[in-house]
Design a protein that fits this description.
Elements: H1 21-27, H2 33-41, E1 45-48, E2 51-59, E3 66-73, H3 75-79, H4 81-91, E4 97-103, E5 113-121, E6 137-140, H5 146-163, H6 170-182, E7 186-192, E8 201-211, E9 216-226, H7 232-250, E10 254-259, H8 270-279, E11 282-292
Parallel strand pairs: 3-4, 9-10
Antiparallel strand pairs: 1-2, 2-3, 4-11, 5-10, 5-11, 6-7, 7-8, 8-9
Length: 294
């Protein structure tokens, strides 16, 4: 959901408290025993101090950074981030960074900086046909809208890379956009001003997303962006409602994410976005946190 920055956030920003362990389990994105067994079968499960750790090398497609991706680490390992990171970088000497999945209810270690926060939309979708007073026009994207959707998706990927201080790999970015545009389960909704034909924004979802770690099927809100500042609030709400309605029709949770830019001073401006989304009916499920090789 790269367009969340467009949401107007009333001051002061309030960061929501972490989920409890029970809340996190209810959200459906905790690691399952079957996942750990499957990871063991393919050689990705190891032990550190006798505790389970699932990690492997991952080439991030947009930046071409070789990362050590940790899809599961026992809570005790997450709490001792210095030892965890030393082990990861020792075992994966070619990786320049570690990306670690952390349940939303666990307090993060300072060495693990926020990269992505995943959230579940838990508000009831509006009834079909309901329109706010400042309605905008929402429609399904057609084949003729492919270039516009591709441009917005490319903008989101490039913006996320730039926010992390990474160099954008042109071929990798094109491959990412092409993969999204050609995905058989992609649906895109376009928004325009009342009575206007040209769209000013979009929401793109994947209706057949699957989280291997938790064994959870879901509808993924890949990106939402509205270029018209005057319509941004109402258009964003309507786009989210359209996505939520689709997820509800499929009987699946709607999951989006917030990308956190890197700040040399250690600030996290995206925390205000997460807080705003929580006030709008989203609940954090899990995060990916980042640590560069020392």
């Amino acid at each position: 959901m790269s367009g969340e920055a467009a949401i107007t956030v009333p001051p002061p920003p309030t960061v929501p408290p972490p989920l409890t362990a029970a809340d996190s389990t209810a959200a459906g994105f905790t690691a399952t025993d079957s996942y750990l067994r499957a990871a063991d079968e393919v050689g990705l499960l190891s032990r550190l101090d006798g505790l389970p750790l699932v990690a492997g090398e991952y080439l991030e497609p947009a930046s071409r950074e070789l990362q050590c991706l940790v899809e599961y680490a026992a809570p005790e390992l997450l709490a001792d981030a210095p030892r965890l990171l030393d082990t990861l970088f020792s075992r994966h000497p070619d990786c320049t960074a570690a990306v670690v999945r952390v349940p939303a209810h666990l307090a993060p270690h300072a060495l693990l900086q926020p990269l992505l926060t995943y959230l579940r939309h838990v508000a009831e979708p509006p009834a079909p046909g309901a329109r706010p007073s400042d309605a905008v026009d929402i429609r399904d994207a057609a084949d003729t809208d492919r270039d516009a959707v591709g441009r917005w998706l490319s903008q989101a990927i490039r913006g996320a890379c730039a926010g992390r201080g990474a160099t954008v790999d042109e071929l990798g970015t094109e491959d990412c956009v092409r993969g999204l545009l050609t995905a058989p389960d992609r649906r895109s909704y376009l928004v325009s001003a009342p009575g206007q034909v040209d769209p000013v924004g979009h929401a793109t979802i994947l209706t057949d997303a699957y989280d291997d770690v938790s064994g959870t099927g879901f509808v993924e809100l890949v990106d939402i962006l509205v270029e018209d500042g005057g319509l941004r609030r109402s258009a964003t709400d309507r786009l989210v409602a359209a996505c939520a309605r689709t997820a509800a029709e499929l009987g699946l949770p709607l999951i989006g994410h917030v990308s956190h830019p890197r700040d040399p001073d250690g600030a996290d401006p995206a925390a205000t976005i997460v807080a705003a989304l929580c006030r709008k009916g989203w609940t954090p499920t899990h995060l990916y946190r980042y640590a560069a090789r020392p």
